């Protein structure tokens, strides 16, 4: 089961990054050009929110089915002293959960704005922060 969930988590991440980059660039570009927020912009932002939440759920399942999870109880391993173990068991999950929180906050806050410029500004900031956090904790050496 671990291999299947790992495969799904790894390849779904490409979709998440692609859609999140598109949503962030779309919001920044339309904020800069003072465009109107339309149904297409709503769908792009919503799709980024949905695929990122699905990735979070897959990641949570992966976390608990991973053989690395048992390292928490191994008396011979200090999770916080081993950088690779710390990345997979602490930094990657915590930072990415925080990234999804920012994306969710951006989605929620944009709905309360009536002005298109303000909607794009909120999405740009929060989706951008989420994207930066996601990119910062991807285990690049094992992912690509």
Give the arrangement of secondary structure elements.
Elements (H helix, E strand, L loop, with lengths): L1 H31 L6 H27 L17 H29 L4 H21 L3 H4 L1
Helix pairs in contact: 1-2, 1-4, 2-3, 3-4
Helix amount, in percent?
A: over 70%
User: Please, how many helices?
Assistant: 5
Unreliable residue stretches: none
In whole angstroms, the N-to-C terminal distance is 21 Å
Organism: Sungkyunkwania multivorans
Protein name: 50S ribosomal protein L27
Transmembrane segments: 12-32, 44-66, 86-108, 120-140
Keywords: Membrane, Transmembrane, Transmembrane helix
Short summary:
By secondary structure, the chain is mainly α. It has five helices and no strands.
How would you explain this protein's 3D organization?
- By secondary structure, this protein is an all-alpha fold.
- The chain contains five helices and no strands.
- The longest helix has 31 residues, at 2-32.
- The mean pLDDT is 93.
Descriptive key words:
144 residues; 5 helices; 78% helix; elongated
């Amino acid at each position: 089961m671990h291999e299947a969930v790992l495969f799904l988590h790894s390849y779904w991440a490409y979709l998440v990054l692609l859609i999140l980059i598109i949503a962030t660039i779309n919001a920044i570009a339309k904020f800069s050009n003072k465009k109107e927020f339309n149904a297409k912009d709503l769908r792009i932002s919503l799709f980024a929110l949905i695929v990122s939440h699905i990735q979070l759920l897959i990641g949570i399942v992966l976390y608990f089915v991973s053989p690395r999870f048992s390292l928490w109880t191994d008396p011979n391993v200090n999770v916080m002293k081993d950088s690779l173990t710390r990345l997979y068991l602490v930094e990657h999950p915590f930072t990415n959960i925080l990234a999804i929180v920012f994306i969710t906050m951006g989605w929620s806050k944009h709905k309360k704005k009536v002005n298109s410029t303000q909607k794009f500004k909120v999405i740009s900031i929060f989706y951008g922060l989420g994207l930066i956090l996601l990119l910062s904790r991807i285990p690049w050496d094992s992912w690509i």
